[in-house]
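During data preparation, a discrete fold description was generated, as reproduced here:
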Amino acid sequence: MKRLTKEENSWIFYDWANSAYSIIISTAVFPLFYKAAATDAGVSASNSTAYLGYTIAIATFILAMLGPILGTIADYQGFKKRFFTFFFGLGVTFTALLAFIPSDNWLLLLVVYTVAAVGSAGANVFYDAFLVDVTTEERMNRISARGYGFGYIGSTIPFIISIAIIILAQSEIIPITTAIASKTAFLITAVWWGLFTIPMFRNVQQRHYIEREPKPISNSFKRLGNTLKEIRKYRALFLFLLAYFFYIDGVGTIITMSTAYGTDLGISSTNLLIILFVTQVVAGPFAILYGRLAEKFTGKKMLYVGIIVYIIVCIYAYFLETTMNFWILAMLVATSQGGIQALSRAYFAKLVPKKKANEFFGFYNIFGKFASIMGPLLVAVTAQLTGNSSSGVFSLIVLFIIGIVILAFVPEPKGELPDSEGLKTV
């Protein structure tokens, strides 16, 4: 593979920048900080968890609805960067604002968190769509995988710094409270995110676009309507989205519910944080490896490999008993979670008409967001019916099997129709 271009490197670095938000705000520090704040305010554990769940659902719904609409508008020349900048600014600003909310105001924390989540997820819609602008189809698998790989690796740096500050505060080695230490982590996230996005702003430009025309907003709605009416012309693309909906649901559920599952097995919070950290470290190089192997064996075959690994994960989870078993499970997940996400993004980018990339990545966002509903529900219902969390995780095997079967009917992308057609041939 030729040396990475300036545009490719700059695009990759945004994954390095934004992944700090994913682990510190979405996964680790903020949920614990919020739970402590809600508890101190007299909110029961079950209610505080429910309120956080409602908040995530609201943010998810907002982005799922806005994605295709804003994406369609962003396909016009010059709009993609503007939308990316807006949502990026929203995310960074409100992430930083979390540090200035009084620790006892749990409701305001959730409001600010909702806006930050919308900003982060919204920026990712347009960031993903920029993949078609920064590289060629032949290099998409590796560039997308390298983005995820660098994201996993990069996120560990602010995560380590943040956790170190919190632990030192808890041990009274440094003269600050745990709440202030957590707020410092929010500021670290915002600074890290903003600093490493600078190359993206400087070097990445929209190369594929639709020429501007009068009444862009109303015309965007017309184009979106036409796309929905002509779904049969995009059969391969929407067939892939259907497969993606099922298998990415399984992937996302295992990621988001792993901590709760580990707790049910009796694993301590300290061990869970360590396992989470090591998983991030291992996932980085494996995501890059998936990209390289995809160039040799095709992205579709490596997606098969990733899904099969997750099927093995579901089976193994059923027999879990010890902390060592959980470590093995986490490492299995780490080998494939970044790779399957990266190659899905690249595969989709190859299928979409480049001039309508934002519109279609809006649909990609919808399928990804709504996919996060069915998996947790399946785990919850199965676990309640059987009285066993392991059975709940095992039930996810259904999603991976459906996903891999549908994926088998999706043809490999083979190039683009003329611009006047605006479609991909498959």
Notes: The domain at 6-407 is CATH 1.20.1250.20 (Growth Hormone; Chain: A;).
